[in-house]
Amino acid sequence: MTLKRTIAVAIVGIATIAASVLAPAAAQDEMQHLELLRSDIKAETVAILTEVMQFTDAEGEVFWPIYREYELERAKLGDRNVALMKDYGMHFDNMDDVKAKELVNAYFKLDEDTLKLDKKYYKKVEKALGSNTAARFVQVMNQIRLFMQVQVAAQTPLIEKMTQAAER
Predict the structure, then answer these.
(1) Within-domain flag for 168
(2) Is residue 166 a part of any domain in this protein?
(3) Which of 33, 83, 89, 167 lies at a CB distance of 3.0 to 4.6 Å from 22, suitable for a disulfide?
(4) Is residue 45 part of a domain?
(5) Is residue 74 part of a domain?
């Protein structure tokens, strides 16, 4: 599978996740579907990293355990992101200033924690495999994250002005 095709598969999965999570009340089977999609995206991310990073066997033996640690921590951030999207979807039709502020602050905190995670694992990969490899890792993960964010943003309706929402 080419890199572009692999990324495209991941993007379709993310778009599906966004659509299902942003629905006001996701059913249990939708949440199971969400978990399957997240699992597929993790596998696609590994495939992208494998193709782009082009590790030697020795480099791979060093990198993949670090990546598995990273992925465990990143999954927790992913859980927070899904919870944030669900919260947004549940309150979209009756969004007041208090809830809007709460959601934006949670979004800012998630972004901060994502940056902290990236910095932490940049340092780990840099120490183990050098700055060039660490920078390439961060670059690839950032590109994947940006592709995903674009898809989620495309599926996310903007908050309406309070006066418009009140007229409904």
Answers:
(1) no
(2) no
(3) 89
(4) yes
(5) yes
Dist CA 101 CA 99 (whole Å): 5
Going 89 to 34 to 151 to 116, the CA torsion angle's sign is: positive
pLDDT in tens, the chain (168 residues): 555 555 555 555 555 555 555 554 444 565 666 677 777 788 888 988 999 999 999 999 999 999 999 999 999 998 898 888 888 888 888 888 998 999 999 999 999 999 999 999 999 999 999 999 999 999 999 988 888 777 777 777 777 766 554 444
The token duo for 11 is: 């993007």
Q: Domain tally for the chain?
A: 1
| Exposure of 90 in the CB half-sphere (CA atoms within 13 A) | 11
| Long-range interactions of 114-120: CB distance < 8 A, separation 24+ | 114/77, 114/145, 117/70, 117/73, 117/74, 117/77, 118/142
CA-CA distances (angstroms) from residue 129 to 64, 72, 110, 125, 136? 12, 20, 28, 6, 11
Q: Residue count of the chain, please give it.
A: 168
The SS3 assignment for 147 reads: helix
